[in-house]
Amino acid sequence: MSFLKGNVLIGQSGGPTCVINQSLVGIVETAIGVDAVDRILGARHGIAGVLAEDFIDLGRESKETLEAVAITPCAALRSVRMKPTREQCEMALDVFQKHNIRYFFYIGGNDTAETAHILNEIAVEKSYDVRLFHVPKTIDNDLRVTDHCPGFGSAAKFVASAFMGDNQDNRSLPGIKIDVVMGRHAGWLTAASLLAREHADDGPHLIYVPEVDFSIEGFLGDVERMYKQHGRCLIAVSEGIHGPGGEPIITSGEVDSHGNMQLSGSGALGDFLSAKVKEGLGKGLRVRADTFGYLQRSFAGYFSETDASEARECGRKAMTVALAGDRQHGSIFMAREDADVYRIGYEVTELRNVAKETRDMEAHFLKGNCDIDEKFLDYVRPLVGKMPTAARLSDFPL
Amino acid sequence: MSFLKGNVLIGQSGGPTCVINQSLVGIVETAIGVDAVDRILGARHGIAGVLAEDFIDLGRESKETLEAVAITPCAALRSVRMKPTREQCEMALDVFQKHNIRYFFYIGGNDTAETAHILNEIAVEKSYDVRLFHVPKTIDNDLRVTDHCPGFGSAAKFVASAFMGDNQDNRSLPGIKIDVVMGRHAGWLTAASLLAREHADDGPHLIYVPEVDFSIEGFLGDVERMYKQHGRCLIAVSEGIHGPGGEPIITSGEVDSHGNMQLSGSGALGDFLSAKVKEGLGKGLRVRADTFGYLQRSFAGYFSETDASEARECGRKAMTVALAGDRQHGSIFMAREDADVYRIGYEVTELRNVAKETRDMEAHFLKGNCDIDEKFLDYVRPLVGKMPTAARLSDFPL
Asked: Which of A63, A300, B93, B293 is the most buried if burial means most Cβ atoms within 10 Å?
């Protein structure tokens, strides 16, 4: 336990989630009234706000406002997609010194952890005493080390509920339906569509994730087979699917400063696949495509309670560990206990273990080229919590 | 009160809603144990199931199954998009006679009411004694006579919650965001996005409905103005927007048997508008488009309680009126009492008053070319019921 007195600064970065503000509030509430903490500041728009010294005073927010913000989706501090240069990171450290920032928390994904990692390296070089922590969030669930990521459970619940409803829709008015799900590198969120399958003939009948190479020919064969079997076909497709060389199926050409191609915010992939099905299997077929888009990460009023409380706890843990001072920096992660009952422990790992690289779904969760193994249900169910159910008539004959 | 003994037949038709099974269960539960009712049958896939004599026995379903089905989205009897020919309608009457169908209920929209209307005309000509009722449902809310339609409240809640979340997303990562909402002829569902606006600078900043002619030039001017004012712009667009001559903005060319063009199940309109914005206002702008698609009518586990209980009551009313026998046929509608407290009465109107034609939003709900009047909130709030709230930080300066 080493005492370090100064100001706390918090930023949020990358694509929002429905529970990202739980982590923010978890940090703030843990910092309130602590001797070592002078002021609790927020940087608007993450690292961009740090560089611009665009700070707000979070310590003056009422308990009521904080709780209301906690259940509001998306970054209350506002977010940013910006990979700072080395020079900008050095400038950020100057800002830290100028404002006596001794505790910095950056809530985000692997790119955010990378920025925190670089900031920490510079702080060590400059011998500036600041405790730097990354708090995980991403609906993609693709961070390394952690069992799962805050934000994923709520998005998974949204996706599973959407597929549960769309399966009923597709059963009402049969046809071929393609649903495109977020997930740039990893198929975790797309795989959550498996939760919608209750009866043997329920969709999604096909699930495509980026962990398996995709080919149009294989896809058309799969669709034809399922359509013959069920008279309909509901398909879950990750936006990140790609060919054997890693080449995208279609490309918008728009790239952000981390080198990430724009995948979401367009119906192009779904429409492309839809056209391919009509072309390959018959113009007369009823083929539709929906792209779930930003609703998966932002829909108001529908989230996983487990996800919300875990996101809160990750924020609390970050502040607690920072205050303790046994570690100068790190990334919070969740470890699942190996027990019959779902239980999570909150731990800290090195920033470099989480920075930059992402985590694919493990091979044992995959089933062939176009399905997910039922083992995945044991993994994902506790994260999503209570799901709606879909009932059928018994279809009693006369 | 005239006694007519025989079998009950129920069908569901058109695009599903989240509460369409409430109406089904409302009919069934009211028919159970009634002297005049021999058997309660369901036709699978609506009129197609009638013609194929594809019937199931609903009277044998347990109370538990019926209640579970009631809260499951989409047509449990399965649906159909089919405008029967005159000959097919005559065949359907033959099937009624063969199976001693004396009560027929067809749950659907204006096209469904049209089919019920024709069936009734033929029954009168043939002097076949059958009581024929249309039970309203449509997320589009575009049926005539009724104050609003079962299915609309839940879809409006979904759309409003999606916009509430997406407004936070757009505030987190500013840019121009286009969201395409269902609604072929009328803008009711798109207008429900207004519920997401809490603060003066909240989106949707622009709302386009089919009741107002749309032009790309006007649209680009509106977007530029809002983007300058707010540094971001969230836009609600109805899928049914069209030019001054009624010509669609883009067209898929796919038409159903009622002559309706395919609008949903594609991201094409959103992507087209998105490309136009980049082309007209600057390639460097961050422009995204989402098309909410079938989630609006099928999402599991998120519905309006008011909508669910009204849909149930419409089903009950239909069976009650049919049994009473004062009317041989009709369409159930909801009349809103002119009172401070929201209260609904259930009434019956002639089938021809609801058949075929749709109802646009009244002019007093519109505000200029690209907005909805706040008066609409009084209309829509009770239908949607409890909404989530979106809270902001106070942004206290240092």
From this structure: B293
By Cβ distance, the residue of B16, B171, B265 closest to A290 is B265
Find all residues with CB under 8 Å of A67, minimum gap 6, and list them. Answer: A25
CATH code, domain with B327: 3.40.50.450
Which CATH number do you get for residue B207? 3.40.50.460
Q: Is the pLDDT of residue A390 over 70?
A: yes
Domain that holds residue B168: 155-301+361-384
Say whether both B82 and B109 belong to one domain.
yes
Q: Cite the active site residues of B.
A: 140
The nearest CA of chain B is from the CA of A395 a distance in Å of 5
H/E run at residue A308: helix A305-324
Look-up: residue for tokens 């091979």? A363
Query: Taking 80 as the threshold, does the pLDDT of residue B170 lie above it?
Result: yes
Residue A376 lies inside a defined structural domain of this protein:
yes
pLDDT value of position A243 = 95
B39 Cβ under 8 Å from any chain A Cβ:
yes
Rounded CA-CA distance B296/B189 in Å is 9
Q: DSSP letter string over B344-388? A: EEEEEE-GGGTSS---PPPGGGEETTTEE-THHHHHHHHHH-S--
Assign A214 to helix, strand or coil. Answer: coil
- Our CA angle for A175, A367, A169, nearest 5°, is 20
Determine, yes or no, domain membership for A318.
yes
Which residues lie closer than 8 Å to A121 by C-beta, 6 or more apart?
none
B237 alpha-carbon distance from chain centroid: 17
| Domain shared by B233 and B372, yes or no | yes
Specify the number of domains making up chain A. Answer: 2
Q: What is the pLDDT of residue A184?
A: 87
Nearest Cα residue in chain A from B178: A265
Q: How far apart are CA B50 and CA B7, in angstroms?
A: 13
Mean pLDDT of B315-329: 97
Same domain (yes/no): A296, A175: yes
Average pLDDT of the residues in A159-166: 98
How far apart are the C-alpha atoms of A217 and B382, rounded to whole Å?
50
Check whether residue B378 and residue B235 sit in a common domain. yes
The model carries a pTM of 0.97
Subunit contact B71:A388, Cβ cutoff 8 A: yes
> Cα dist. A309→A314, A359, A385 in Å?
9, 23, 12
At how many degrees (to 10) do helices A20-31 and A63-70 cross? 150
Task: Kindly state the tokens that stand for A17.
Answer: 């989630």
Determine whether the interchain pair B301/A177 forms a contact, defined as Cβ–Cβ distance below 8 Å: no
Q: For residues B185 and B100, state if they share a domain.
A: no
Would the pLDDT of A379 be above 70? yes
Return the structure tokens found at A78: 């506002």
Question: What pLDDT is recorded for position B101?
Answer: 98
Which strands make up the sheet holding A6-12, listed edge to edge? A55-57, A37-43, A6-12, A101-108, A131-136, A329-336, A344-349
Is residue A51 domain-shared with residue A30, that is, in the same domain?
yes
Are B213 and B293 found together in one domain?
Answer: yes
Residues B377, B372: Cα–Cα separation, whole Å: 9
Element (H, E) at B129: none
